[in-house]
């Protein structure tokens, strides 16, 4: 009985030790590059992403990252893997150039995933995307994926935002300062923003980076392409009780 009690105490102390709490998930880096050309015109896909090497937690995280990367390609197709998605993009360009040999411009997709933050309880990754497949200008986006470190589950906004109203108020204030909109004018009256039903909203890209909570409105999300990105950041020390850290 005493032996069982001793083992239980030992395990509890091991789980709560500083070394365990501060443990970082081991990461390695993966790269994928696919290119196809018709004469001197080319299409190219470049992707860089991390792999978590721990089996149980890492398997879940890795699968979610790969699924999200694949989603940046055609939505009307189901691809077996990321390689197939990249090859489909390149092959589509080759077919396009064969049908329209006088069309100018190369096509490309660049996707980069990097760890942006890690605490005792969660880990956040930032996805940066750039693509061009014809048109007036290239497109780009930023997004975050945040995971529970203990079970590898992807965290939703509701999982790590503890007080959405407070965060929304802080974000609107910072948004106004960023775009120099005085408090005497509503954002809908200002006229340069896309606001469904005139209501301010949090962006899709919310994640952790370098000790801050980052909120990023990408082009077309809350304004025209010419508005560009609106990147707002709050020190996590200022968000006690507002977000999980």
Q: Could you please describe the fold and organization of this structure?
A:
With 245 residues, the chain is of the alpha+beta class. Helices cover 31% and strands 30% of the residues. The protein contains seven helices and eight strands; from the N terminus they run H-H-E-E-H-H-E-E-E-H-H-H-E-E-E. The protein has a five-stranded mixed β-sheet with strand order 1-2-3-4-5. The protein has a three-stranded antiparallel β-sheet with strand order 6-7-8, covered by helices on one side. The radius of gyration is 22 Å and the shape is flat. Residues 1-20 have low confidence and may be disordered.
Can you tag this structure with a few keywords?
245 residues, alpha+beta, five-stranded mixed beta sheet, three-stranded antiparallel beta sheet, 8 strands
């Amino acid at each position: 009985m005493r032996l069982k009690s001793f083992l239980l105490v030992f395990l509890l102390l091991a789980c709560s030790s500083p070394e365990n709490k501060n443990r970082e998930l081991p990461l390695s880096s993966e790269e994928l590059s696919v290119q196809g050309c018709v004469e001197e015109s080319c299409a190219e896909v470049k992707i860089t992403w991390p792999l978590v090497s721990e089996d149980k937690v890492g398997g879940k995280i890795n699968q979610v990252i790969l699924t999200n990367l694949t989603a940046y390609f055609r939505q009307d197709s189901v691809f077996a893997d990321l390689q197939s998605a990249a090859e489909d993009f390149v092959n589509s360009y080759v077919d396009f150039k064969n049908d329209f040999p006088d069309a100018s411009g190369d096509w490309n997709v660049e996707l980069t995933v990097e760890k942006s933050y890690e605490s005792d309880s969660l880990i956040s990754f930032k996805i940066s995307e750039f693509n061009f497949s014809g048109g007036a200008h290239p497109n780009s986006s930023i997004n975050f994926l945040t995971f529970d470190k203990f079970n590898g589950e992807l965290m939703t906004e509701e999982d790590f935002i503890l007080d959405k109203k407070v965060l929304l108020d802080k974000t609107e204030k910072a948004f106004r300062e960023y775009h120099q909109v005085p408090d005497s004018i509503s954002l809908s009256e200002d006229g340069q923003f896309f606001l469904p039903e005139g209501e301010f909203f949090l962006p899709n890209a919310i994640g952790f980076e370098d000790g801050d909570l980052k909120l990023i409105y990408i082009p077309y999300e809350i304004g025209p392409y010419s508005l560009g990105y609106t990147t707002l950041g709050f020190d996590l020390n200022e968000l006690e009780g507002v977000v999980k850290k």
